[in-house]
Specification:
The structure holds 2 protein chains of 2 kinds. In chain A, a hairpin with a 4-residue loop joins strand 8 (279-284) and strand 9 (289-292). Chain A has 8 helices and 9 strands. Chain A is α+β, with helices and mostly antiparallel strands. Chain B is α/β, with parallel strands linked by helices. Chain B has a single domain (3-192), classed as Fe-S hydro-lyase, tartrate dehydratase beta-type, catalytic domain (fumarase, Alpha-Beta Barrel), CATH 3.20.130.10. Classes of the chains: A alpha+beta, B alpha/beta.
Chain lengths: 293, 196
């Protein structure tokens, strides 16, 4: 078995981007299958049938699930029992994302924000997005890759409420946002909600909420209850798959939270589409790579 | 809701028979267009180099690879239509386009044009590019190639769909209907969350 190297991290970063674009996580697939079985509206049922057929074709023929290959996001956890050089990991992720785009090849969507020039690499200044976490117990490098398409990301929003607005303002904000988004984010996906922190942190929390497996609940019972209430209210809208009416408007509502300032009450929504793509790899010191979701 | 198997080019009768919630499968050709294509057509007043009478247009920016003179498919999917709203009435009036395929729908202006000229909006399942890519048999022509991936693409399709009639030529708009129903339920939904 080969030893760990930063070249290996680059190869894995490339592989993860391509895998994420072709194979949906089993929890998302299962949630879509269950939603299909439960659905009582004929139009919505036809949409679910098409979604499931699409997933099968993508898997069997190695095609991209969706043409929007998105912007690359890597969520990295460095383990204390296997310390690595963060700067070198960052460089490897950048190169891996670019190589996936050029070598597969697929459409790159990264663009200069003013000139709108697209280098066709999926990267550029500030990209890929990388979030770092640390785990004292881990003896591996954990990389979660999330390609984020624009249909869903464009529907995301953040607001700084004040304490006097209470928790109900946060719930109203989430429900209103989902209703307003309608068919744009290719529902039913995952509604990620961030609560607390600062303006930047609350947005990151919402993004971390969309990568939690469907079927998981927040360990805090109060937040778990809020997830359940919001899920029921969103599905009771009847907006349905692709906003054309139906029983399932979202597969899940996930909330992640942090402490905030005594004068602050922030909330963020990160919208994820039905192709809720993500792919994970754990890389060990001996060069062993475990792929998962 | 009825199911129709349509072959292009479409006649006015083909379109007038369709009602919202009907499903459609298409054989023949569809034309890929998008933002930049229509900016050239309508803001820069350039005539498209292909006849679009009776055509079905799809909002797409395909991922293709040019090998010699041939265009090979990598992934062809559909984008949000709402951005194309102001181009759609002239697309139907001036060039005789009969149907637009996309996701998220169009607005009042397009609905009015569909009523007047005999047009419709066919919703595709967004994100389902693997299926679309296999239902497109061949990229036969690319016009205004300098605009790629926003050129005009002539796709030959086989059993393309299912597409859902989301706006018809009789003034019905499925997205608006769903939104109206949500508005009626809203007070009850707020109550369930403890919001007055």
């Amino acid at each position: 078995m080969a030893e760990f190297s930063y070249q290996l991290v680059e190869d894995v970063a490339k592989e993860l981007y391509i895998k994420a674009l072709k194979y949906l996580p089993p929890d998302v697939k299962e949630a879509l299958e269950k939603a299909y079985e439960r659905e009582t509206h004929e139009t919505a049922k036809e949409i679910f049938r098409t979604i499931l057929k699409n997933l099968k074709i993508a898997e069997e023929q190695g095609l991209l699930i969706c043409q929007d290959t998105g912007l690359p996001i890597y969520m990295v956890t460095i383990g204390s029992k296997f310390p690595v050089d963060g700067a070198k990991v960052a460089k490897a992720l950048d190169k891996g994302a670019e190589r996936a785009t050029l070598e597969h090849p697929f459409r790159g969507s990264s663009t200069h924000p003013l000139t709108r020039v697209n280098p066709q690499t999926s990267v550029g200044k500030g990209l890929p997005v990388i979030h770092w976490e640390f785990d004292e117990e881990a003896d591996y490098l954990d990389i979660l890759m999330v390609p984020k398409g624009s249909g869903s990301e464009n529907m995301s929003a953040m607001k700084m409420f004040i304490p006097a607005d209470g928790v109900k303002a946060l719930k109203k904000f989430v429900l209103d946002r989902v209703i307003e988004s309608g068919s744009n984010p290719c529902p039913p996906g995952i509604i990620g909600v961030g609560i607390g922190g600062t303006a930047d942190l609350v947005s990151i929390l919402a993004k971390k909420a969309i990568v939690r497996p469907v079927g998981s609940s927040n360990p805090d019972p109060q937040l778990a209850q809020m997830e359940k209430e919001l899920l029921e209210a969103i599905n009771a809208t009847g907006s349905g798959p692709m906003g054309l009416g139906g029983d399932t408007t979202t597969l899940a509502v996930h909330i992640e939270s942090a402490y905030t300032h005594i004068t602050q009450n922030p909330v963020a929504v990160n919208t994820q589409c039905w192709p809720a793509r993500r792919a994970r790899a754990k890389i060990y010191a001996d060069g062993k790579v475990e792929y998962g979701f | 809701m009825a199911h129709y198997n349509l072959t292009t080019p479409l006649s006015e009768d083909d379109v007038r028979q369709l009602k919202v919630r009907d499903t459609v499968v298409v054989n023949g050709h569809i034309f890929g267009i998008r933002d930049a294509t229509q900016i050239r057509m309508f803001d820069q007043n350039q005539e498209p180099p292909v006849d679009l009478k009776g055509a079905i247009c799809i909002h797409t920016a395909p991922s293709l690879r040019k090998v010699g003179d041939k265009w090979e498919k990598i992934s062809i999917g559909t984008t949000t239509s709402t951005r194309m709203e102001r181009f759609t009435p002239p697309l139907m009036e001036k060039y005789g386009v009969r149907a637009v395929v996309g996701k998220a729908g169009l607005l009042e202006g397009s609905l009015e044009a569909m009523k007047r000229f005999g047009g419709c909006y066919l919703a595709i399942v967004g994100g389902a590019a693997a299926l679309e890519t296999t239902q497109i048999e061949e990229v036969e022509e690319v016009y205004w190639e300098d605009l790629h991936p926003e050129a005009i693409y002539k796709f030959r399709v086989k059993d393309f769909g299912p597409l859902i009639v989301a706006m018809d030529s009789h003034g019905n708009h499925l997205y608006f209907d769903v939104k109206k129903q949500i508005k009626q339920k809203l007070p009850e939904l707020y109550k369930s969350l403890g919001v007055e």
